[in-house]
Amino acid sequence: MSSVDTQLHAALARALDGVPHHELRRRVDALSHRYRTEQVDDTAPAVRDHLDALAYAVIRMPATFRALYAALSAAERHVDAPFTTHLDLGGGTGAAAWAAESLWPHITTEILERQPAAIHLGQQLATGNRWHWTAADLHHWSKLPDPDRSTPDPCEPAESIRSARSAWSARSARSVDLITIGYVLNELSADTRRLVIHAATRSAKTIVLVEPGTPNGHRRTLDARDLLLDHGFRIAAPCPHEGRCPTDWCNFAARLPRTELHRVLKDGTRNYEEERFSYVVATRAPVRPAPARVIRRPARPKGRVMLELCTSAGTAQQIIVPKSDDAYRAARSTNWGDAWT
């Protein structure tokens, strides 16, 4: 368990002090049902009060942190630019901020979140950190006018525009190095997704987007990737190319430790879990793309390693590295999601 994992679990444990576990379990079950049946969208938020926020944080925040950390690590490796300012859209209880600060300790982070309960818990968990929290609805934030356009959209209520403008008044005056959109698109309508991504392209030099590693999550990630390319961004990771995806379903995995309470609430027996996720890193900065990416868990039968790759030519390819090959040792240490040269 990393030091940041330890700090996050300790912060969650403090927040849970005195909370009846049977009531927390009921909220966890209800939240899981709402997500499984896709009852979470623009008008039906997942987190409705403090106990919902606690249930969500305990069951999802460590996994969300691990997935975002993996995607941001890819941005660090493949984007040739510094990251000093960060805006997290729909940041919930702050998992992306934890991930960004673990990589760049001096980064300045602002978190946009619409649910007061999530903001309150996120601030409680982040005691001692310098993050700024802003209450804002992404739908309204995405409707803020371009910096060179003073007239707002006549179809958008003036009060909502004023509210979003006051929530982040500096938005039209500056951009940030990095925007994260983590596990957010699955909670938005298709129209709002497009609006949010369009607004993000006007506000950031690099965008890191993470979605659940399901077939639907993969499709949402590809749709976002297409929009980012249309806006002139380059793809830094995970794809080593900017063409069509050669697979039907691309996802990656991050392993994380489970606490005893986590195991109880999720009816789990193992002391770890794997979080499956899809992601894309897009940027206007110079990129250092991988020659190829390992897109499945490597198979290691005796005397050889089998790697499934996505290549810079835009194709999916399997290679077999025998023990006699000079690359065998590198292949043995290569993991799912790694670059392959």
TrEMBL record:
InterPro entries reported in the protein's UniProt record: Mt_RNA_Methyltransferase, Ribosomal_Rsm22-like, SAM-dependent_MTases_sf
GO cellular component, one term: small ribosomal subunit
GO terms (BP aspect): methylation; translation
Domain of life: Bacteria
Keyword Nuclease: no
Transmembrane among keywords: no
Single GO molecular function: methyltransferase activity
Record keywords: Iron, Iron-sulfur, Metal-binding, Methyltransferase, Ribonucleoprotein, Ribosomal protein, Transferase, Transit peptide
PANTHER family given in the database record: 37S RIBOSOMAL PROTEIN S22, METHYLTRANSFERASE-LIKE PROTEIN 17, MITOCHONDRIAL
Protein name from the UniProt record: Ribosomal protein RSM22 (Predicted rRNA methylase)
Organism: Kribbella rubisoli
Origin organism lineage: Bacteria, Bacillati, Actinomycetota, Actinomycetes, Propionibacteriales
